[in-house]
Amino acid sequence: MRVLALAEEFDAALIDVPSSSIASDPVLDVAVTSADSRRTIYRLVLAARGGEVTAREHTPSKLPGFCPQLHINGDGTFCLGWNGAGLLAVEDEASARLWWARLHGYLRLQQRARRLGHWPDREWAHGNAAGYQNEAEVAAAQLGEDFIEDLYADKFEATWCGRIHPTHGRMLQVFREGVPIYKVSERHQRVLNSRQACICVKGDVKRHRRLRSCGEHLKLAFDFALALRNWVSAEDEFWRALAKTSATCCGRSATCRLRAAPQLEPETER
After folding, report:
1. Taking the model in full, what pTM does it have?
2. Hey, which residues does 27 pair with through a beta bridge?
């Protein structure tokens, strides 16, 4: 396992060396230093599965054994990112260093989340929703820096219109800060009124090209709308499916959708 060779450099020590010839997952004590210089020791089990290295707490104590809202999977492994982004494989020393950096960053975020009562950073959606999130981010980034910034700030919403249009079928309306900016037709798989000014930042410029003639923005607008709606739908489906299982809320995140009790007031971050 390539990451073990760098353990000492990343303030980790192997504490359980398998003595038999039977393969066993290594156990390490990993020291994480927070912004206020406090050191916390996490006893973790690492496992190599294909090209991916997973980590979980040896015996859940400092962290919950499972919490989707804190990005801890059902088997206790840490969700260090979305695998579809192609960044989780450990193939060489460079990717092993990246893995360790991501692990330390993840554990620092866990420390902040414990104080705040919610995940303190931009995060991947759950389950299949992460793929749609990625599609929305890719489209938004190509529509302009302001577009992707507003997406990260949760300023966009895509909702189905209440009535079925006789020609266009169901129509999806995209809102930006509560203001409708365009519609798409589900039946025809296109943006309605492509003659409007482009939705990119140049759309406010007098005599700017229309949406249909502003590069790839017409297609990107459609892709963004569908991805945005599918992202929300897939996230809702994830929580609906989880609610049908025996999973219970660990109580550490005030924003957890499994939480049945009234939300706790998060602590003020210091």
Report:
1. 0.83
2. 16, 45
Closest CA to 28 of 36, 19, 10: 10
Closest by CA position to 192, among listed 162, 221, 227, 231:
221
Which tokens belong to 154? 């949760």
The two tokens of residue 157 are 């919403």
For 154-236, strand residue ranges (E) read 156-160, 171-176, 179-185, 190-191
Q: What is the CA radius of gyration of the chain?
A: 23
Residue type, 173: Q
- Residue whose tokens read 């995940």: 119
pLDDT along the chain (270 residues), means of 10: 93 74 78 90 91 92 94 93 72 93 95 92 90 96 94 95 80 95 90 90 64 92 96 95 91 85 41
- Tell me the sheet residues that pair with 210: 197
> Alpha helices, DSSP H only, in 172-261?
217-243
Tokens of 203: 């759309």
